[in-house]
Amino acid sequence: MTSYLQAENLTKSFGDLALFEDISFSINKDQKVAIIAKNGIGKTTLLNILTGKDTPDTGKVTQKNDITIGYLEQSPVVDNNKTVIEQVFQSSNKIVEIVKNYETALKSGDEMEMQKAIEKMDFHKAWNYEEKIKQILTRLKISNMKQKVGELSGGQKKRLAIANLLINEPDLLILDEPTNHLDLQLIEWLEEYMQKSRSTLLMVTHDRYFLDRICNEIIEIDNNTVYKYNGNYSYFLKKREERIHLHNLNVEKAQNQYRSELDWVRRMPKARATKAKYRVENFEKIKEKAKGKIIDKNLELSIKTSRMGKKILELYDISKSYGSLKLIDNFSYKFSFNEKIGIIGNNGSGKTTFLDIITQKIEADSGRIETGETIVFGYYKQSGLNIDPNKKVIEVIKEISEFITLGNGKQLSALQFLEYFLFPTKMHYNRIGKLSGGELRRLYLMTVLMKNPNFLILDEPTNDLDIATLNVLEDYLLSFAGCLIVVSHDRYFMDKVVDTLFVLEGNAIIKNFTGIYSDYYFRKKEDEKAQKNIVKKTTSTKIKQTKPKVNKLTYKEKQEFETLEKEIPELEERKQEIEKLLSSGELSHQEITEKAKELEQINDNLDEKEMIWLELSEKIS
Fold first, then answer.
1. Residues spanned by the domain of 145
2. CA neighbours within 13 Å on the CB side: how many for 470?
């Protein structure tokens, strides 16, 4: 088995904060490996060390000399001054370079350069590769090749970085939370792509379906010990439970032995102390082992919720638009007790806008919202906490309440509540600035839950949370005695906690689907397959019935047709950008007016150009 990368005795600390100590593992060719560890263990730091972006305090990393490594960071580093196409072609891959030269030669109009480029494309069989590049960019919704990278949103930069990696096909792919900021459609496409990919893979992700369907090995880092599991996420769960059970049995055995040895030590005559020195030393080892029981912490809290009356939340003919972009159109719904609803839709379809209207953070254009007098909203927003980094963890919690009332009437102190939420005592007085992204999210979640809401609204709660915390949150939500609305791209999470979906399909269409996300996904796939069969049969019939046409385009029309094929995707890309900005809720009133006018102009321009394109395409066979 060929070793691609080896980590030997790695240790890393930041000041007095120890992340990991003396850990070792290796990645071999063709493996698809995931690293699982709790927040604060330094998973991103570890990946940075493996890729040479950071250095360990002690230990070393070695890699095979002749392999290429591609690294997708959580916040990809890109050149904002480059265009999208320049960033895509930024590579040492030989075939990518050949395709890049061919594209450059086409733009130059130099016939000799074009001929050389074509010959190289032929020799290296790069034509299929060029098609693959276009397919990847299209599927990742990247169409405006001339746009500056600096003009892209964070999510668009992430997609661009993914496209660059997939196009370059490195021998070893290292991915840090690849599904963050992707909508469900893109996650499912990426999942299918990675299943077929021949690249060796190492990744950190909280997406458990992604883990289950792609990885064939799990590396768990727990208490500075590395555990390896030769299987997917489901296999890992089973074997981890067995490991903990076996460990605890050995600890119980050591505890029984410890009690026996403790009795002997207490009765041991001083005269026999020297002869029994080895037994005393062994007693100390048994004592240490007897303390090593693993308590696999799960949060089992039923926090008291505010009383809920008969009237909960009622929406009547709600509509919302930004200029010509209509997000919600005459939507009505009456929420019932203990209802758990998931909201799904592509980025820019208006999910966050919908939540902000429900909580009346923004006003609907028309319609009315009636909220029951007893309803207390708990709104967990994507933006997270905005706290002074010098504040201590315990101070943030105590500012809300010194005590938290549980569903059974008992109370927990702020310290105890932090313990339940997997913040050990040693972290209570840590500064906020020292927390990892996942720990900050967990703290924010606590501040929402401890206000005793009876209507919870969670906007992308799974981002940056580790799997242990996700399990904790899922268990809490399953026992939550109130209404729940969740926006999430985590399919496993959605399947576990919601039983109804609002599907935002775009063009202000919101469909109600009764069932979990997996049911919806399989239903959608069946519908798409049936639709493709209908189109295939219809197209086949038309081809048989229609006589072949000849190309009747004049030279001028041909040039116009080629120009339109470039301009239309660029306009569509700009349209999507403006629609996303308008639905973000971050623009001022003046900016909204300006963007809405620009959108109207683009729509008019698109209609005109698409009509001309259709007329010209009718002349082509």
1. 3-235
2. 25
